[in-house]
Amino acid sequence: QVQLVESGGGLVQPGGSLRLSCAASGFTFSRSAMRWYRQAPGKERELVASISTFGSSTNYADSVKGRFTISRDNAKNTMYLQMDSLKPEDTAVYYCYAASFDSWGQGTQVTVSS
Question: What is the mean pLDDT of each run of 10 residues along the chain (114 residues)?
Fold first, then answer.
């Protein structure tokens, strides 16, 4: 079955960086576009970034453009989210999503605070 496991979250100071990973199994990873979403307390889940099957096309929410970078390594069945210049408003649970299989990971908490 499809499994997505996020890792790399944690507590970071404003202006700091984190790199999230999403390890995929149970499906042909290179056949699915992938996305990162996030959900802050009391807010709806929002799309952060998306990447096409072979990484040739990426898109970002305006709120993270220029600060976050989505990437994937199909040989390792893994997607990444490099997050730089983090702000307190980036605090949320971050989820990976396999678009072709409508499947979600369990999420990883990112907290940006001094």
Answer: 97 98 96 98 96 96 98 98 98 97 97 97
Q: Tell me the C-alpha distance between 90 and 39, whole Å.
A: 9
Half-sphere exposure of 52 (CA within 13 A, CB side): 5
β partners of residue 23: 5, 78
Is the separation of the CB atoms in 90 and 13 below 8 Å?
no
User: Could you please report the per-residue DSSP string of 5-19?
Assistant: EEE--EEE-TT--EE
The CA-atom distances, in angstroms, between 79 and each of 15, 58, 87, 98, 113 are 23, 12, 22, 10, 25
Report strand pairing: 3-7 vs 18-25.
antiparallel
Q: Residue 69 is inside which H or E element, if any? A: strand 68-73
Which pLDDT does position 113 carry in this prediction? 97
